[in-house]
């Protein structure tokens, strides 16, 4: 977001000197660009629970290592309807789309049929439904899955039983017919089904989903129940170009990814990719092989609410910038993206 301040500097004369009209002095103008950035930040304590009541004095923002002046800090309560936009009545007066009544959450299941992955999926299906039980009635949930390609199983809905059935089926293979667009907000209305069918890797599936979510307003939460991202080459995990594009679009679309690792192992190579997408988008990564219930607790804490920070970008150049948000005088952890593009 950018604004412009135009300063006009000039001089005027009155009357005449020696019967002659003086030559007017030139008028100068200067245009100063003030680029303002909007970012989401979640602040949680050691137990993963939200810390409310913070103001501007509780945050420090660094852009490319330089301090940025914070304009506003606003707490957005997750349970508050229309927290990030206009009510239908206000939107009708303004002639724009209303905000979604509740939060938008996506449950993404990366199917894996090896025993080390299938066991974890079976364990976490029940935990996923526990997350549903803690949501507000207005919250809308969509369910997508990936096996050979990306599949939309349920569009954004408040029907919890429909979502639970989709969660149960999400780790199964088989054909899923395209869903027709639903009333706003609709993921089906934004999803490119041809691209979804052609998405043969999890990274490509994430890219297609990211493009669709970017078109919907406000902050979105993506619960990624999966076993890994990236490809192992030698001793390194390569994320690839599709992930690089998805990463930027997720950040631009204000999508936070919570990576829930279902792999039934203490360590595996592709967990690096899950850690990466969570870190890039301001979410978190959690293992579930030992303490599966902690995923539910941490999700509930993270989506309970977040801060919206607006600050002036101190750099002159447009492009990619590193971002660091620190707490001042507060003990806690910030979940927020590490860079932005303007």
Structural notes for this entry:
26% of the residues lie in helices and 32% in strands. It has 8 helices and 17 strands. The strands form 4 sheets. It has a 6-stranded mixed sheet, sandwiched between helices. Strands 1, 2, 5, 14 and 16 form a 5-stranded antiparallel sheet that branches. β6, α2 (115-133) and β7 (140-146) form a beta-alpha-beta unit. α2 (115-133) packs antiparallel against α3 (160-169), α2 (115-133) crosses α8 and α5 packs parallel to α6 (240-252). The N and C termini lie close together (8 Å). The relative contact order is 0.21. The model is unreliable at 1-15 (pLDDT under 50).
Please tag this protein with its features.
single chain, 8 helices, 6-stranded mixed beta sheet, Rossmann fold, 342 residues, disordered N terminus, 17 strands, alpha+beta, 2 domains
Summed up, the domain count is 2
Any idea of the CATH topology of the largest domain? Rossmann fold
- The helix tally amounts to 8
N-to-C terminal Cα separation, in Å?
8 Å
β-strand number? 17
Give the oligomeric state of the chains in this entry, treating copies of one chain as homo and distinct chains as hetero: single chain
- Overall structural class, as computed from helix and strand content, comes to alpha+beta
Our Rg estimate from Cα atoms comes to 24 Å
Low-confidence parts: 1-15
Strand order of the largest sheet: 8-7-6-9-12-13
CATH architecture assignment name of the largest domain? 3-Layer(aba) Sandwich
Mean pLDDT: 86
Main sheet makeup: 6 strands, mixed
The gross shape turns out to be globular
Share of helix among residues?
A: 25-40%
H and E string: EEEEEHEHEEHHHEEEHEHEHEEEE
CATH class of the largest domain: Alpha Beta
Instruction: Note the beta-strand portion.
Output: 25-35%
> What name goes with the CATH superfamily of the largest domain?
von Willebrand factor, type A domain
């Amino acid at each position: 977001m950018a604004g412009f301040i135009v300063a006009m500097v000039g001089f005027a004369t009155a009357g005449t000197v020696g019967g002659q009209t003086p030559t007017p002095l030139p008028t100068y103008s200067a245009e100063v660009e003030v680029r303002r950035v909007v970012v989401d930040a979640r602040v949680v304590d050691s137990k993963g629970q939200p810390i409310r009541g913070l103001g501007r004095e509780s945050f420090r923002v660094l852009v490319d290592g330089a301090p940025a002046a914070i304009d506003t800090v606003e707490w957005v309560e997750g349970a508050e309807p229309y927290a990030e936009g206009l009510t239908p009545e206000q939107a009708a007066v303004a002639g724009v789309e209303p905000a979604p009544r509740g939060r938008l959450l996506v449950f993404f299941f990366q199917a894996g049929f090896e025993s080390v992955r299938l066991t974890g999926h079976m364990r976490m299906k029940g935990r996923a439904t526990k997350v549903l039980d803690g949501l507000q009635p207005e919250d809308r949930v969509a369910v997508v899955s990936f096996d050979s390609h990306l599949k939309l199983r349920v569009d954004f809905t408040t029907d919890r039983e429909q979502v639970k059935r989709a969660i149960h089926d999400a780790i199964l293979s088989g054909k899923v017919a395209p869903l027709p667009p639903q009333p706003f907000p609709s993921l089906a209305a934004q999803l490119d089904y041809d691209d979804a069918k052609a998405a043969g890797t999890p990274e490509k599936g994430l890219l297609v989903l990211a493009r669709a979510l970017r078109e919907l307003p406000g902050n979105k939460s993506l619960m990624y129940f999966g076993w890994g991202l990236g490809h192992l080459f030698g001793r390194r995990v390569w994320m690839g170009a599709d992930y690089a594009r998805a990463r930027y679009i997720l950040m631009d679309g204000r999508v936070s990814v919570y990576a829930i690792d279902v792999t039934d192992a203490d360590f595996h190579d592709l967990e690096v990719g899950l850690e990466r997408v969570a870190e890039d988008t301001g979410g978190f990564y959690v293992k579930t092989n030992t303490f599966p219930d902690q995923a539910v607790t941490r999700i509930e804490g993270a989506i309970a609410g977040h801060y919206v920070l607006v600050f002036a970008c101190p750099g002159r150049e447009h492009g990619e910038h590193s971002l660091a948000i620190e707490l001042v005088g507060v003990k806690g952890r910030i979940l927020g993206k590490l860079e932005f593009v303007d």
